[in-house]
Each structure stands twice: as C-alpha cells, then as structure tokens.
Design brief:
Layout: H1 7-19, H2 42-49, H3 53-60, H4 68-77, H5 82-91, H6 110-118, E1 124-127, E2 133-136, H7 138-143, H8 157-163, H9 165-170, H10 174-190, H11 196-208, H12 210-217, E3 226-233, E4 237-247, E5 255-260, H13 266-285
Antiparallel strand pairs: 1-2, 1-5, 3-4, 4-5
Length: 286
C-alpha cells in the first residue's frame, strides 16, 4: 500500500538536496559572481529537470503534488542514488511508481571467494538469487558433483535437488530437505515478484516434478540459516553434516553455505577422506 504523500516533507527534501549540490556537480557553467546561498538555485534545478520554475517553486512550497514523470526527471537532476530515489518517491506518495532497477549480473564478492579457498576441508557454496550456485570449493565438488560440468543456466541448488539424480539420491531425507529449499525460495519470491528468471525456474520445476508443484502451492516459507543434513555418499557412505548459512551484509543477497561435521566422528573422517581425494585429483590433473 502506497503511503499518503507529504508535500511539505517532499519540498523540504528537494530544498535540502539542491543545497548539497554545486553547478559543477551537475555540469553547469561556473557562476561568475559569488553566491549568497550554497547549492543550486531553483531555476537551475527546474532547467535540469525540464520543468517550469513556477512549478518547481510550488513543489518546494508543498502546494502541488509531483507526478511520476516529474519525480523521474528530478531524481536525475538532483543526482539521487538508489536509496535517495526511493525516499523521494515515498515522500511523494508514489512508491508504486518507482522505476524498477535493472538487474545486475550476479558476481561473487572477493571476500566470499577468499573464504572458499581458505575452507580446504569443509564443503562450501556461494548461493545467489534464486539459490543459484555462484561458486564452490574443492570439498563441495567432492561431496556433491563437479559443478563445472553443469551448464551455468542449470547450476541452481533447488533445480539440482529436484532434477539431478546423483544429488537427489544422496539426500537420505530428500523430501524434508527439498521442502525446506522450496520454502526458502518461496520466501525470496515474496520480496521480488517480477524476476523473470525466478518465474522460469518455478515454471520448469512445476512441469517436471509434481512434488515441487504441490509444495510451491502450499506457500510455506522459511529463512532457516542452519540445520542438519543426512547424506548417503556413494564413496564414503552415510554422513551427518551441520549446514550453516551466512548472508552477505552488502545487500547482494549472496549466502555462504558451509557443511561441517562433529570432530572425531565417522562423518568427520569421511569428510577428510573426500577432501583428501579431491586434493589428489586436482594434483593429478595439473
């Protein structure tokens, strides 16, 4: 629901923002004489936004409501960043008209990559939007599969959980784990209903698997950051691993998923065997 507009608050924000800019910031000629007040003049903002000075003056005075096209030109004229634009539209009572941000490619943060390389005996994955698998370490390859051989468009944790027989059969409690993953994706979908890749993923899995279709329709959600996974690995047999997930604080939505075993347990020994095997395989292929 869009909040009611606050014309006076909008006017105060416009005035404050233009006071923070100089003509040079906006590509305007340097003034010939010193200015009595800091920042841009009203007529300069109006000119940059291609609106009349009278209309802009009434906006600052809270005597008129801004249309969505005017907000767009004002955001550009006042050099507003993403957060500032959102604030501008909310003050104007037009949050529903905020232009959609163009989706940027998912790139793994350097800090995440460093963590992956340093986790030598612990399987770890970097998950992006829609549970896409963006990066992994050698231990994750040894536990799950060689992700490099999976086409990038198919490299999705949920998709592989439903469609990759090797990974599906390895989960002893597949139904529980799969339902948890569906609920996690459903929670993400609630905050982004316009993602075409998400719609494509849901559509594909709904056609391919009746369980997914049924569980998706149940609208169960969760944001679990930890849990226990029970695997039956073809090489090392049964393994019980703790699964912990940390979300990046930068707002990218990237998550680091790490699987560990209790020390001095058969599962811990099995992980050591897998990681030693993975290290040996990499040495032989160099």
């Amino acid at each position: 629901m869009t909040p009611d507009p606050d014309p006076k608050a909008l006017g105060a924000y416009l005035k404050a923002r233009r006071a923070q800019l100089t003509p040079q910031d906006c590509g305007l000629p340097e003034p010939g004489a010193p200015r009595r007040v800091a920042g841009l003049r009203r007529e300069e903002v109006a000119g940059l936004a291609a609106i009349s000075v009278d209309y802009y003056t009434r906006l600052e005075q809270g005597r008129v409501r801004a249309s969505a096209p005017v907000l767009t030109t004002l955001a550009r004229a006042l050099r507003l960043n993403e957060d500032q634009q959102k604030y501008l539209y909310e003050l104007a009572g037009r949050a529903d008209a905020l232009p959609r941000r163009r989706r940027s490619p998912q790139r793994v943060r350097p800090a995440m990559r460093r963590l992956l390389t340093q986790l030598t005996a612990t399987p770890a994955l970097v998950l992006g939007r829609r549970l896409d698998i963006l990066a992994w370490n050698r231990a994750a390859t040894a536990l799950f599969t060689d992700f490099e051989e999976i086409p990038p468009q198919q490299r999705n944790y949920l998709r592989m959980l439903f469609t990759n027989d090797q990974i599906r059969n390895m989960h002893e409690n597949w139904q529980h784990d799969a339902r948890e993953a569906v609920a996690a994706l459903r929670m993400e979908a609630a905050s982004d209903t316009t993602d075409p890749d998400l719609a494509r993923l849901v559509g594909d899995l709904s056609l391919q698997d009746p369980d997914f279709s049924r569980w998706w329709a149940e609208h169960q959600v969760n944001n679990a950051t930890y849990g226990t996974k029970h695997y039956n690995h073809p090489t090392t047999g049964r393994m019980t691993l703790d699964c912990d997930t940390w979300t990046s604080p930068d707002g990218s939505g990237q998550r680091l998923m790490v699987l560990t075993a209790e020390p001095k347990t058969p599962s811990h020994d099995a992980l050591l065997i897998l990681t030693a095997w993975a290290a040996g395989e990499q040495t032989r292929t160099r």
